[in-house]
Amino acid sequence: GLNKETVEGLAKATGNKRFAYDSFRRLLDMFGDVVLGIPHESFEDKLKGLKAKVGVQDDIDLTAEHLKELCDLYEKVYDEHGKEFPHNPMDQLKACIKAVFGSWNSGRAIKYREVQGITSLLGTACNIQTMVFGNLGPTSGTGVAFSRDPGTGKAVLNGEYLVNAQGEDVVAGIRTPEPISTMEKGFPKAYEQFIRNVHTLEQHFKDMQDVEFTVENERLWMLQCRSGKRTGQAALKIACDLVDEGICTPEEALLKVEPDHVKQVLHPTFSAEALESAVYKENVVAVGLAGGPGAAVGKVVFSTETAEEMTKEGVILVRETTSPEDVGGMWASRGIVTCRGGVTSHAAVVARGWGKPCVVGCDDIDVDMKTKTMTIKETGEEFKEGDVISINGSTGEIVRVAIETTVPALEGEFGKLLGWADEVPDVCRVMANADSGADAQKARDLGAQGIGLCRTEHMFFSPSRLPVVRRWILRDEGLEQVQEFQREDFREIMHVMDGKPVTIRLLDPPLHEFLPHSSEINEKLSKQLGYDDSQALASDIEAMHEENPMLGLRGCRLGIVREGLTAMQTEAIIHAAADLIEKNNDAKPYPRIMVPLIGSVAEFKNQALLIKRTAERVKKERGIDVPYEIGTMIEVPRAALVSDQIAGVTDPEDGKRLCEFFSYGTNDLTQMTLGISRDDAGAFLQVYKDLGIMEEDPFKSIDTEGVGFLLHLSAAKGRMVNPELSLSICGEHGGDAASIKFFDKVGLDYVSCSPFRVPVARLAAGQASVKRRKDEIEPMSRKDRVVKTSPMA
Q1: Which residues does the annotation place in the binding site for substrate?
Q2: Residues 25-83: pLDDT tens digits?
Q3: Which domain holds residue 62?
Q4: Partner residues linked to 451 by β-bridges
Q5: CATH number of the CATH domain containing 465
Q6: Known binding-site positions for Mg(2+)
Q7: For residue range 369-421, what is the model confidence (pLDDT) as tens digits?
Q8: Is residue 346 annotated as part of the catalytic site, yes or no?
Q9: Is 512 a residue of the active site?
Q10: Does a structural domain hold residue 112?
Q11: 750-753/429-433 β-pairing
């Protein structure tokens, strides 16, 4: 409403000419920037020039005449940009309202919604309210405060204020603010009232508050309040303290912690100081997708072999993309970078599972495997093997220098909060995907109630085992030795998870993934695999080539076609459990044997009967009663449609049901339902999201209308035949909070995710149950949720 005429009226009405022109110059600046798109720097340059001319350092030292001159300079900025400042107050108001509505589609707003996962809102609101002024003079001021420390969570008022200033001055850092505690001296009455107000607001909203205020001529005005942003460590402490102080219940406290807060606490990161430092900001050379949270520093390497050789020196594995053959190098590395693939690609999935920072789909770089170089496209800067870089898996940034990392301490609040989540009535339980004893131990330490997916193929890739596996694949030799490998690994995992279920998936991937590429074939390798020459080896490998291996000879088809495979794996599982019981009579191994990729009832029955006959034979031979279950993965859409038939399959000899559990493999179920390759989706998913064709990456959060419908249909059909049927999921969605909310609603007994995502899943499961019961929603398909433990327990 200010213009050249009304500014004089404001000066007379307040008796403060400086205040009037200070307010007018602020309007000219912000209106030009926000409404008309004139760069703020244009106004800032005029301000700096005037301060230099009159010899002052701070804005507050400018007199009324100086500010009047500044207003004239600002109007010239409009002329320089071909814009006109409207002097009619109603025209100003209309333009401001339009700017607020238009801001919804600004690049910054779109990016914010993307980062925050905001997809359902259609626009923003516009509030029009009366102003109060903190720039009226020395008896006025403005500030921002938090009712608790947002960095540590400590119950102390934390904030800053400025005398004779407006709110944006505090945020913009135009002057150095004073600590909020010193306000007591300058404005004792306002400060006392402010303390009372902050306490009242926190008690009312039952959360730490971010408060903005203005003091106008010693009178306090509360401008706004909201739940304050906080670090992960602070979020845990605040939630626990609010319960201890009787402000809220444990269930209410759970809803105040976000999944990202738990992630922050679990992963090594760059400190807030490091992220804000010039050293960091000036050395970011490329940005990709945030594939795995956390931070890592290491030497660049380009091959699995080199990563394994240099692992003690600390390395970052840089590849165009990764495959299962790279798992050794990935494990040996502190972090991973790929220039292709999305956040659900192999590299990202494996990295998250191991808690390793990962940057994927980094289009800013070129990776040349021949010259072993990583080149920044924009600048041509080249990184060679051995050069040190830092990566930020939480932001996707690659930094050219070493940045120090820090590991937040896991204090008592961590266990207390997740304990509350586990105790929520009717909560969906959390298990882990683990392929080794070390993974299983990590999962158990982080609160997993069992292993929901043990992928037997990951045990085959170690350098000592891979040649044996290849001999079996190519020449049908050495199956007994492969069984010993598996028996040893299963024994270790079941020992770690004693008394808790361990779900072991039979061999799933196509066999070509274990075979050497043509470039690796040589005489030495041929002799190692029992061939007379490399040509014969190459011929046999070529004969196993598949045009579409994902839909080819894999999963249960392997067990049906490759004689002895399913029996061998079953023997290894039951022998491993029997070994533990034989060694310690108090041991309580509880294996669950899972048949992958079934599409028909006949496939499941074929494999289930073979598993049962083999298991019973081994038990009889050992004279040890090993408890076990048989179930299947539901990942082919047809299997979901005939789930009632699968759940009803019985043994013709004793009439007992063969299928005791369904585990939904949502990775493949999503690929097959949507017809989208998980590893290639990065080529178009972002465009789809930008155009509104897809709101979310379906490999990150479950597609509830399509994949979710099949899952719900399958669950209902299965439970209709067998009310005691155990239902779970074991895809990447098991660690996603939004997906867990859907799984809770469907009535699944548990979700399974990578060990490092277990705490996040526990929190999300507890929150989902609290929200569902709060909304009085009855689960769609549910028996009482109980994760079975060993019958021997």
Answers
A1: 455, 505, 635, 665-668
A2: 999 999 999 899 998 889 989 999 999 999 998 888 999 999 999 999 999 999 999 99
A3: 6-87
A4: 432, 502
A5: 3.20.20.60
A6: 635, 668
A7: 889 999 999 999 999 999 999 999 888 999 999 998 886 655 689 999 999 99
A8: yes
A9: no
A10: no
A11: parallel
